[in-house]
Amino acid sequence: MPMGDMTVTRPEGPELQALPHPATDDTPPALTRRLRTPRHPRLWFEILLIAVSYWTYSVIRNAVPEQRAKALSNADWVWRVEHQLGIAAEQTINHAVDSVTWLIIGMNYYYATLHFVVTVGVLVWLYRSHPGRYSAARLALFATTGVALLGYYLFPLAPPRLMTGGHFIDTVQVHHTWGSMASGDLKHMSNQYAAMPSMHIGWSLWCGLTLFALTAVPWVRVLAILYPAATLLVIVATANHFWLDAVGGVLCLAVGFTVARTWYGALPHALPQTAWQPARA
């Protein structure tokens, strides 16, 4: 047959059905996509993960060298910077609140307990009510804490109550209230010079933002706003942190949410409420 007369024919009828089909949405996701897809959390794994993570955090935080001279020098520097910025009101607040015994004792217990109780409570609530958002929110919290560990190592900082000549009142020691790992008989179990950044602020703000974004109950949303604000007042009144320590905690939280958004493709509150579950045979 001459070259010009050549024609191309296409298979018709049943032969068309024998051709391979392109991949469809039913194709199993790739490993990376599976890892980034929020899955329904498993209770035993979450309990184990949180316990091991907190233990690791405590070990690393307390293993950071207690560089007393450097920490006190950094505290003096932070105090000078705050005076230059016109925000050095910590000492005034510390003395004013300490003059009201019932109030400062309440703040001491607040500082020692709610930091853990509220954070764990929000995690449990997320696990039960928002399983699709739980993993991303938990990742944001863990990443925030991980960045804080780096801060403790790179910038040892004495809290105001340990400053030499700072005239701050160590409210736990003065009022003999229980609970603070940073004062009294328990002070040797915790690194005294890991004040920057403040995880009381990082964790409380994580709790507040999470609750505010995911609940429609008005009084809960009000408490969500008040909780980090009250925590800020407490950490300053008890002389455990400077204002700038709180700023450090906010920056760590920003990094934590950025990590979660980068991994899951959205902030926790923007993910579906329910979680993907692998199909069972």
TrEMBL record:
Compartments it resides in: Membrane
Organism: Streptomyces spiralis
GO cellular component terms listed in the entry, alphabetical order: membrane
Pfam families referenced in this protein's UniProt entry, alphabetically: PAP2_3
Membrane topology per record: Multi-pass membrane protein
UniProt-listed PANTHER family: PA-PHOSPHATASE RELATED-FAMILY PROTEIN DDB_G0268928, PTHR31310
Main localization (coarse): membrane
Spans traversing the lipid bilayer: 43-60, 109-127, 139-155, 203-230
InterPro entries per the UniProt record, alphabetical: Aur1/Ipt1, IPC_Synthase-Related
Entry annotated with the keyword Amino-acid biosynthesis: no
Record domain Inositolphosphotransferase Aur1/Ipt1: where: 77-258
Sorted UniProt keywords: Membrane, Transmembrane, Transmembrane helix
Region named Disordered: 1-32
Name used for this protein in its record: Inositol phosphorylceramide synthase
